[in-house]
């Protein structure tokens, strides 16, 4: 075996990356270790491109292995690893959301990033290690990617504490006032996961500054490693359309866009209708042209128009001011005397029903996973049926989005749930998205607060959630949206 190791002192822990021929059939791979937490990252890209899709086909798989704990886990009847745990799904989403924006979105080669946790200690969470491992594997591979990117976890023990901890242990995070995971590059942040107990904005800003300092330390190290280990990047040409099609679009479609996109109600439906009609027409005139390229041209023009109107005229497609919240409606209870509490929350076209169920201590969820072994007394589950967006599809089962959104709302609420000494019940919340026009996870937070109060749970404060967006211009000008 041929191998070479690089290391960095990161807040008193050794961070190392080992390159070898262990997985020599991949485009790139690396073993990254922090303390005794060890993650193998592999990246593979397909030889051919898919011409039947209009999106970038990236998949990120986060593989938990029971042996990583040094224990034989599982049930009496099943000792193999089964479906991904919620923790594995959430960790995979962290990596995905960090690396995805750094690819050119016109790539149509399938790319798969696999993070396999080979060892885990009691201090170092593999999710931060996985981000760095994915970055190094991609950065040293021949796959085009605009990295590197790094991750760090920032902790704060109490509201009055002035010292942030870097990558705090699991034990410290249990009772932490702030648990913040930040990913980014070049002093810019592109992924955040956070849980806190009503932290002040100024203190949170300090945490982001500390995170950026540490991220740049890891970035400098990664760049040195990549400089020595990098393969020559493959060149993937950006697909181009027939200039005649672009001319026809500018003449026939672009003049219609403002009236359709900024036409008030049902703008999305109207936009899809004229898009599909135009794609059909172009396919008849230019049968060899990819439908995906035609759709991309249309949607890029809509995106440019929305940015232009927002930045220059403070206009939104639905007519609201940039700081204006959609119309709200709330209802607590009145659903059924059988259930223990309920809340209905409307924000514009997004409607969520949350139902509360209370149980005894024995109704808690027992978790025996690679990373977490505990009894869980508070849980929030999120369901997003296809009818909520006017579509048909398979019902039942969980996907990564539902698990991620459920966990997001659960983190938002956990800080106000009473201690078990005060309220010893097991608490389960289920948020049903019944209609969606964006920000359903944050509507779930609001509906859950209503359900908790309706059921008499003595939360320390009500919680509201809202999604935020950013319109960014080419010259660095920007507008913030609610």
TrEMBL record:
GO terms for cellular component: cytosol. InterPro entries: ExoRNase_PH_dom1, ExoRNase_PH_dom2, ExoRNase_PH_dom2_sf, PNPase, PNPase/RNase_PH_dom_sf, PNPase_PH_RNA-bd_sf, Ribosomal_Su5_D2-typ_SF. Its EC number is 2.7.7.8. Keywords: Nucleotidyltransferase, RNA-binding, Transferase. It comes from the Bacteria. The keyword Cell membrane does not apply. GO terms for molecular function: 3'-5'-RNA exonuclease activity; polyribonucleotide nucleotidyltransferase activity; RNA binding. Residues 20-144, 147-212, 324-458 form the Exoribonuclease phosphorolytic domain. GO terms for biological process: mRNA catabolic process; RNA processing. The keyword 4Fe-4S does not apply. This is polyribonucleotide nucleotidyltransferase. It comes from Candidatus Vogelbacteria bacterium CG22_combo_CG10-13_8_21_14_all_37_9.
């Amino acid at each position: 075996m041929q191998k070479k190791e690089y290391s960095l002192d990161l807040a008193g822990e050794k961070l190392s990356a080992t390159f070898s021929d262990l997985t020599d059939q991949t485009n790139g791979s690396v073993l990254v270790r922090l303390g005794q937490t060890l993650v193998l990252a592999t990246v593979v890209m397909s030889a051919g491109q898919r011409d039947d899709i209009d999106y970038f086909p990236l998949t990120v798989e986060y593989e938990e292995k029971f042996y990583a704990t040094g224990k034989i886990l599982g049930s009496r009847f099943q000792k193999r690893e089964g479906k991904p745990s919620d923790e594995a799904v959430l960790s995979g989403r962290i990596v995905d959301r960090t690396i995805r924006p750094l690819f050119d979105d016109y790539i149509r080669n399938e790319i798969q990033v696999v993070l396999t946790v080979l060892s885990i200690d009691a201090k170092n969470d593999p999710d931060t290690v996985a981000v760095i491992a994915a970055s190094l594997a991609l950065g040293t591979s021949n796959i085009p990617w605009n990295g590197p990117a790094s991750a760090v976890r920032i902790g704060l023990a109490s509201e009055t504490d002035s010292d942030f901890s870097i990558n705090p242990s699991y034990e410290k995070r249990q009772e932490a006032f702030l648990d913040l995971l930040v990913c980014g590059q070049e002093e810019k942040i592109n992924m955040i996961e956070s849980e806190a107990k009503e932290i002040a904005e100024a203190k949170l800003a300090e945490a982001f500054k500390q995170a950026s300092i540490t991220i740049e330390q890891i970035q400098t190290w990664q760049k040195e490693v990549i400089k020595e280990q990098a393969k020559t990047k493959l060149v993937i040409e950006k697909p181009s359309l027939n200039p005649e099609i672009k001319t026809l679009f500018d003449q026939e479609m672009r003049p219609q866009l403002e009236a359709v996109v900024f036409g008030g109600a049902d703008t999305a439906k109207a936009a899809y209708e004229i898009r599909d009609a135009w794609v059909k027409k172009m396919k008849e005139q230019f049968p060899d042209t990819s439908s995906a390229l035609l759709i991309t041209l249309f949607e890029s023009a809509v995106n440019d128009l929305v940015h232009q109107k927002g930045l220059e005229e403070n206009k939104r497609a639905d007519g609201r001011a940039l700081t204006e919240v959609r119309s709200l409606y709330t209802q607590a209870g009145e659903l059924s005397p059988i259930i223990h509490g309920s809340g209905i929350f409307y924000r514009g076209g997004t409607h969520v029903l949350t139902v509360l169920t209370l149980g005894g201590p024995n109704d808690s969820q027992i978790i025996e996973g690679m990373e977490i072994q505990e009894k869980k007394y508070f849980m929030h589950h999120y369901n997003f049926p296809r009818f909520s967006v006017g579509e048909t599809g398979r019902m039942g089962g969980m996907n990564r989005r539902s698990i991620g959104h459920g966990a997001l709302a659960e983190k938002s609420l956990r800080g106000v749930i009473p201690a078990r000494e005060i309220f010893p019940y097991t608490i389960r919340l289920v948020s049903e998205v019944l209609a969606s026009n964006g920000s359903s996870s944050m509507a779930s937070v609001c509906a859950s607060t209503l359900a908790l109060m309706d059921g008499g749970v003595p939360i320390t404060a009500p919680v509201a959630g809202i999604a935020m967006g950013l319109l960014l211009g080419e010259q660095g000008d920007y507008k913030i949206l609610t």
